[in-house]
Automatic annotation (TrEMBL):
Lineage: Eukaryota, Metazoa, Chordata, Craniata, Vertebrata
Quaternary structure, from the entry: Heterodimer.
Name of the protein in its database record: Acid ceramidase
Catalytic activity: an N-acylsphing-4-enine + H2O = sphing-4-enine + a fatty acid
Organism: Galeopterus variegatus
Pfam family, one: NAAA-beta
Domain Choloylglycine hydrolase/NAAA C-terminal: 143-382
Its EC number(s): 3.5.1.23
């Protein structure tokens, strides 16, 4: 994970490059209206559904999905290899990944190691490269998550998944290469046991952790990256050196979605478990006031900020910055999100108005892969692929 000073420098350079390329200021748009149901130039299409049968052995659970998506994931992995080889042209780093990484990163918790081995077998991609794909979330994600509560105490949870910053800018069509290659890999997943839904999630084919999902009738959960000097690279280094007492953040969210039986249980796990990388866990329940943003360091919780509608706190917004700090001035998605929520008002908040907000630039940006809308109480779960036509900020 990038240090703050390095991130600031690279974002500044990217902002100048993107603004010049697009001949436009980075953010100019007022709050969007009437964008739902999705249509028009910001809507790429619906996301397909697949069933993941948890009654199958872990090695076999992803076979159907990966058979369908193997060509697309091979394109993605090759692009990641090209990025790595651009920094280490000899190809030796990828050779280490292919030959050494599976052994160095053995003993993943629960079913994850066997699931990744099954994915590698079906796609004919080296296991080390599948593992690399599964840890990239720790480094290259910028997201926006929202939880709201209406006047009747009804909770809604929504997010934009933004992924691929610094991973190859295509000057011909003003897009991030990896962002575009992730869109064909985006899937909705219905995890079932005994032919009954355990939880639903949106993810990328080949990634066995979860960053967006809900247990119908019980809870919703999204994961946002947190920039910190004490970042994910330190957690990975400790793992490589044999200290394996921390959870990968995508794995802990999946375990919470699969196993938690209440909002409070989920909050306790996400607050107290040691994790590999700093993160924000955005958790929603099914009762008034059951919503929080958990700001995590790798080893402890720094803050749990909760809905409090009686005190006027009827929504929570998390991008990628601690709530008590100002966002990086080049990447302020928090302010427009809150402004649009305030204009919407608690009386009018809905799935449709949340989609409007997440369609407003720069909340919608060149990194946005998909938008997910969740209503836990009604069991409503929708995910849509997104585009951000020019002029549009580069992240």
């Amino acid at each position: 994970m990038l240090g703050r000073s390095c991130l600031t420098f690279v974002l500044l350079a990217a902002a100048v490059t993107c603004a010049v390329a697009q001949n436009a200021p980075p953010w100019t748009e007022d709050c969007r209206k009437s964008t739902y149901p999705p249509s028009g130039p910001t809507y790429r299409g619906a996301v397909p559904w697949y069933t993941i049968n948890l009654d199958l052995p872990p090695y076999k659970r992803w076979h159907e999905l990966m058979t369908d998506k193997a060509p697309a994931i091979r394109i993605m992995v090759n692009s990641l290899k090209n990025v790595v080889n651009a920094f280490v042209p000899s190809g030796k780093l990828m050779q280490i990944v292919d030959q050494k990484l599976p052994g160095l990163l053995g003993n993943f918790p629960g079913p994850f190691e066997e699931e990744m081995k099954g994915i590698a077998a079906v796609t004919n991609i080296p296991l080390g490269e599948i593992i690399t794909f599964n840890i990239f979330y720790e480094f290259f994600t910028i997201c926006t998550s929202i939880i709201t509560e209406d006047k009747e105490g009804h909770l809604l949870h929504a997010r934009n998944m933004d992924f691929g910053i610094f991973l190859g800018w295509n000057v011909n069509n003003n897009t991030w290469t990896i962002t575009e290659e992730l869109k064909p890999l985006t899937v909705n997943l219905d995890f079932q046991r005994n032919n009954k839904t355990v939880f639903k999630a949106s993810s990328f084919a080949g990634y066995v952790g979860m960053v967006t999902g809900f247990k119908p009738g019980l809870l919703s959960l999204t994961l946002n990256e947190r920039f910190s000097i004490n970042g994910g690279y330190l957690g990975i280094l400790e793992w490589l050196l044999g200290k394996k007492d921390a959870m990968w953040i995508g794995f802990i969210t999946r375990l919470v979605l699969e196993n938690s039986t209440s909002y409070e249980e989920a909050k306790n796990i996400l607050t107290k478990t040691k994790i590999m990388a700093p993160a924000y866990f955005i958790l929603g329940g099914n009762q008034s006031g059951e919503g929080c943003v958990i700001t995590r360091d790798r080893k402890e919780s720094l803050d749990v900020y909760e809905l409090d509608p009686k005190q006027g706190r009827w929504y929570l917004v998390e991008t990628n910055y601690d709530r008590w700090k100002n966002p990086l001035f080049l990447d302020d998605r928090r302010t427009p999100t809150k402004m649009c929520l305030n204009r919407t008002s608690q009386e009018n908040v809905s799935i449709a108005t949340l989609y409007d907000i997440l369609s407003t630039k720069p909340v919608l940006n060149k990194l946005t892969v998909f938008t997910t809308l969740m209503d836990v109480t009604k069991g409503q779960y929708e995910t849509y692929l997104r585009d951000c036509p020019d002029p549009c900020i580069g992240w």
